Amino acid sequence: xxxxxxxxxxxxxxxxxxxxxxxxxxxxxxxxxxxxxxxxxxxxxxxxxxxxxxxxxxxxxxxxxxxxxxxxxxxxxxxxxxxxxxxxxxxxxxxxxxxxxxxxxxxxxxxxxxxxxxxxxxxxxxxxxxxxxxxxxxxxxxxxxxxx
Length: 148
Known about the structure:
Blueprint: E1 2-11, H1 12-22, H2 24-30, H3 33-40, H4 46-63, E2 77-81, E3 87-91, H5 93-102, E4 107-118, E5 121-132
Antiparallel strand pairs: 1-5, 2-3, 4-5
Helix pairs in contact: 1-4, 3-4
């Protein structure tokens, strides 16, 4: 069953302006070390890489219904890749606690995430699916359950 849905559109130029103005302070405040390494490996599309991840964080905050309050912080939401290469989320802190609180008893959450960009826009969509624990930890697209 679907327990949350969120989307966000982010301007890549806005992210580039933040990188130009605040540099590493912005990166360290908003993005996880994994996300920073991914962006560093893509110097020509660094701002777009960050913009997609920024949009994913915003989309997640909408999917759980809190925005960035109630203990949910951007650095608690990290975009990672499943074994197939598909994007998904690694959650910690308040973001993990909020998702756990939403999870029905006897279920686990599967995060479906899609990212795209077409300059100057980056976009993310998230669907949070609750599945009974008796089902496989992998779905047909090899998306893993949101890691603890």
